[in-house]
Prior knowledge:
Blueprint (H helix, E strand, L loop, with lengths): L8 H14 L19 H5 L10 H10 L4
Amino acid sequence: MAKSVKATTAEKALIVSRLKAKYPQMFEKGWGKKIGAGLKSYAQQTGQPSFRGASGSDLAELQKRFGKKK
Length: 70
């Protein structure tokens, strides 16, 4: 198995500076935190059902029940 090599302090600083240039939003305060009280399903957020994963007769039945959605 290959020996793992850790980045030096100078290499880490170079990586961080490149990340700041390419993705400045990552370094803003609060980046990556949840928004709101918690994560909700698509149906809870929008009030509309999600048809993801449905096909064929299942999709036809869902479209009759909830209306035409893509």
